[in-house]
Amino acid sequence: MVLYIFYGIFVACAAIISAVLLHRYAAPKRVSFLVLLITWYGWLTSFSVVALVPLDVYTTLSGEGNVNVVLYLWRVSYWSTQLLTWLAIPVLQHYSLSGAPSVLGRFGYALNRMWKFYAIVGVLAVLGVLVAAAFGKLELATLPQLIVTFSNTYGLVAIMALLGYGLVEVPKVLWRRSFPETRLKWHLHRVGKSCDRLEKASKELEQCLIIVVITMQQIPRSETELREQAISLMNFANKASPIPLKALQSSKIDVESLEERDLDYAGDAEGVASLRERLKRAIAEFVGSRGDYIAYLKKAIELEALCKSRQIGVYQPLENAGWLAEVGWHYKCRIRPYVQRLGAFICAATSALVVWCEATIASGRHPDLSPFSILIHERSLKYSQWLIQFFVAAPLGYVCVCTFFSLFKLGSLGPYHMVQRATWSWSLLLNASLLSRFAAPLCFNYLHVIRMTGKQRGGRTMVFVDSMGMEDVPLLGAGFNVWFPLVMVVYVGILTTGIFEQCFTKVFVPRKLRFDSEKADDEHSSKGQGLLAVEHENLNRGGSLGEGCNVFGMQSSVEDNSTDAELEKMSNGKYWNRRTLSVELGTSKYTSTQRLNSSRYDSSLANKEEEEEETAVRDEADALFSGLGRK
Description:
Layout: H1 5-25, H2 33-62, H3 67-97, H4 103-134, H5 143-177, H6 180-218, H7 224-240, H8 269-312, H9 323-359, H10 371-377, H11 385-409, H12 425-449, H13 463-468, H14 480-483, H15 485-497, H16 499-508, H17 522-540, H18 562-567, E1 580-585, E2 588-593, H19 603-629
Antiparallel strand pairs: 1-2
Helix pairs in contact: 1-2, 2-3, 2-11, 2-12, 3-4, 3-12, 5-9, 5-11, 5-12, 5-15, 6-7, 6-8, 6-17, 6-19, 7-8, 8-9, 9-15, 11-12
């Protein structure tokens, strides 16, 4: 049992880290519990695959422990990641995006959207089987291993790009952060750029809300089912949107400027569902853009104050700050830059070692040119099991940090983008899917780095190596795992010299798949400087952070519905439960009170309440539409 304590500690830490990451990135109360659970489990199973590597290495080198236990743990972790990444997460992604009013409708939408994906996977699987048959490697008993081989070969190709970028960028980020003055310029650039994104997202959300009101007006009273779906959409817009419908009275968008396709949602139930899906995307885009803008503003304000303290030599954050705050501020101003530079040197040296080990995989252990391999193999009999597992886990942890850093930084503001406290369901699930897909290939590549893919003492081989089955990849050959890492070595060299960013990225890589390069330009930096000055003036007047950008939905005069949406589950029903709504729309005012327990009332009263609520929603749409019509 002592042998598995290190693994248990690793898994426990992974569970805590996954929970912390969820708390850091998930939008509060805007992501369902099921999505949070699947994302957490996806991250946990990915980390558990990584946690098995030190245990498997020590068991193989020492001959201690039960191989069957390691095999069982590996199968549970690996196949959990595969089921998540290829089945559960893709279906749940489209389910969360669907605008269908019922659960079955959402599942139908998800399956309808996924059949093309599964058709492509099926075609590739058939091609893989045909290739394996052509090479004489197709047997019924080895078919599962063949599937694992092709899946991990694809993962290894992607891992080389992610790992290579991380090995170069992690030391660079630490080095750049050690210069607050330069860092301030970069954050001013980010403030200006994020404001542009926020303006586009606000305009799209504002337009979607107007279309919701117009669609409600277009549906006749005779279409009972369609009207119920439209009322549900109005309720959803009121509760889920950070910009309430009544704020449209101050909208600057002219209804006449809407395109013809924007007025075609009221024809059938599918059109209303499409509008709901569009509204979900617009809300997610606005919340994410707003989260980015606020986060960059806070960092820019802190860096500005830090630079001023360094310039005048006074390290006191506030007049009435306590001694602990003064110590922390003194650390940020004077000590932290040197700590970050030291960290950058250590990370750069570790990255160089990893690249060297990748480049010399072909040498094997005769001669053994990998420092990590020498540390593990030559001293394994002299160290305790705890120390051996630590020496295996430490470089592997750095490799995982570099890879996952690249994954979290992938994309600017698309489906891959992760925003602190503002990430929606689709991006969380996509990130969990990619982590699940790449964990095993990353570990398998690391086993080549430490020279553990062949037979070890006593003719023993690792469970991980036997199960992965990538020693002889059909079509690519037995040496694929040896020569392909050399591609990453060349890639790292190109990244280090800056050639990739200047030439290859702009020509061959789509914008949404590019990594966010930290290069400020004059246009966004000057805009960010102006926004920062306006925000300072606004804060001095007692305003809220973010109002200086003058974007619709960011002013204090616009009531934010996020609190109500966070206190209640988003429902597809027709009722506003547990609260009394009193909404003033121009000269029209209504109050609608809904009781949670409607069973206390007879059916006639329930029908009357339903009619009153429908009338209230209709009146709201009428008032909003008349207000828009006057523009």
